[in-house]
Design a protein that fits this description.
Order of helices and strands: EHEEHHEHHHEHEHEHEHEHEHHEEEE
CATH class of the largest domain: Alpha Beta
Distance between the termini: 17 Å
CATH superfamily of the largest domain: Thiolase/Chalcone synthase
Largest sheet: 10 strands, mixed
Oligomer: single chain
Radius of gyration: 20 Å
CATH architecture of the largest domain: 3-Layer(aba) Sandwich
Structural class: alpha/beta
Strand order of the largest sheet: 5-4-6-7-1-8-14-13-9-10
Shape: globular
């Protein structure tokens, strides 16, 4: 018998806040976290703006100086968000007060790119000294994308299934979805799920910009423009999002607070192009349909929120709009939809988890966060994308979808928790 799965803890490091209350407040108030890049010179680069993390203090999240010194920021962000989520959930797999079997606690945390910054830095050393004698002995175990999941497991004594999923921009929607399935079918009682990323480095900017993916707008407040007729590409963002998923009876037995129930997951591939989405939206639509079928979506009764992938690229936003129409028919025009990338930028491997957290809070609080700076309508993106101002409404179901390079499509569905 399939088990029910709920969210009992959440954590965030993002361009609009490094804790859940700040993150949610800024999203609902339409605060833009995109600004000029301050971490490195950009004069020679084609792009000068991003969604950087501000005022990050890793010591606040149980990291000592030695750990901080050795680890890439993507791992630090993941560890920090997991610390928040596990503290929030109240789960403990070690000590006398442990309330979960360590072998029943897992970690599904991915990164689209991994230790990009250290890879860049150590490559420069290798080019300067071909013998490699100055390359750090910690290079490999700091760069590999699974290391964030590994460190989170170490810190929380998670001896159960630990996986790093890498599906580009769909990464952490897949980690949440696969964690849902693992718990649903009895492979774990709880899983720390999500993603982390720190790709805003000079090489990352150059690579994405030369691939014609990034907005080259010079105004930080008018650069990330999902579904806007003036959109010119996405804006890079950093951070981490983590959700603790838990089997319902296990959560109830320990008196856990329940944020929402996870009720569906879809996963398909465009099998079309390395970077461009399938233009007719058919494979993306099937991903959404799979999640909604499992969630028991009823268009006659449900009031739906969709947290869109909404990157602000010409191709994605049109294909995504077509996918919603294909999957939902006439109901697509009734759904409340928004893209928080208008405020956070694109957090790549962390985006899906941050947006799943947003979906959970939209359901819980009955508020649809806006797509800011949506001031020019595109006739090909003609659904209700919640322009500029949050909307209060009693939502019953929410989905968060992500589409990644390689054609990866993922969608997770949530409902308000009911006994």
């Amino acid at each position: 018998m399939a088990k029910r799965v709920v969210a009992t803890g959440v954590g965030i490091i993002s361009p609009v806040g490094n804790d859940i209350p700040t993150f949610w407040k800024n999203l609902t108030e339409g605060v833009c976290g995109i600004d000029y890049i301050h971490e490195f010179p950009t004069e020679e680069l084609p792009v000068h703006i991003a969604g950087e993390i501000k005022n990050f203090q890793p010591e606040m999240y149980g990291m000592d100086k030695a750990f901080i010194r050795k680890q890439d920021l993507f791992t630090q962000y993941g560890v920090a968000a997991a610390y928040q989520a596990m503290t929030d959930s109240g789960l403990r797999a070690d000590g006398e007060d442990r309330n979960i079997d360590p072998f029943r606690l897992g970690v599904y945390v991915g990164s689209g790119i991994g230790g990009f910054e250290i890879q860049y830095r150590e490559t420069v050393k290798m080019l300067e000294e071909p013998s490699g004698q100055w390359v750090s002995p910690l290079f490999i175990p700091t760069m590999i994308s699974n290391i964030a999941a590994g460190h989170i497991a170490i810190k929380h004594n998670a001896n159960g299934p630990v996986l790093d999923i890498v599906t580009a921009c769909a990464t952490s929607t897949n980690t949440v979805g696969e964690a849902f399935r693992a718990i649903r079918h009895g492979y774990a009682d709880a899983i720390i799920a999500g993603g982390c990323e720190n790709a805003t480095i000079p090489l990352g900017i150059a690579g994405f910009a030369n691939a014609k993916a990034l907005s080259r707008d010079t105004d930080p407040n008018y650069a990330s423009l999902p579904f806007n007729a003036n959109r010119k590409g996405f804006v890079m963002g950093n951070g981490a999002g983590i959700i603790v998923l838990e089997e319902l009876e296990h959560a109830k037995a320990r008196g856990a607070r329940i944020y929402a129930e996870v009720v569906g997951y879809g996963n398909t591939c465009d099998a079309y192009h390395p970077t461009a989405p399938r233009p007719d939206g058919t494979t993306q639509a099937e991903c959404i349909r799979i999640a909604l079928r499992e969630a028991g979506f009823d268009p006659e009764k449900d009031n739906m929120y969709i947290n869109a992938h909404g990157t602000g690229t010409k191709l994605n936003d049109v294909a995504e709009t077509m996918a919603y129409k294909n999957a939902l028919g006439d109901y697509a025009y009734k759904a409340h939809i928004s893209s928080i990338k208008s405020m956070t930028g694109h957090m790549l491997g962390a985006a899906g988890a941050a947006e799943a957290i947003t979906t959970i809070f939209a359901l819980r609080e009955g508020i649809v966060p806006p797509t800011i700076h949506l001031d020019a309508s595109d006739p090909e993106c003609d659904l209700d994308y919640t322009p500029n101002t949050a909307v209060k409404t009693d939502l019953t179901i929410g989905i968060s979808d992500s589409f990644g390079f390689g054609g990866h499509n993922a969608c997770v569905a949530f409902r308000k928790y009911e006994e």
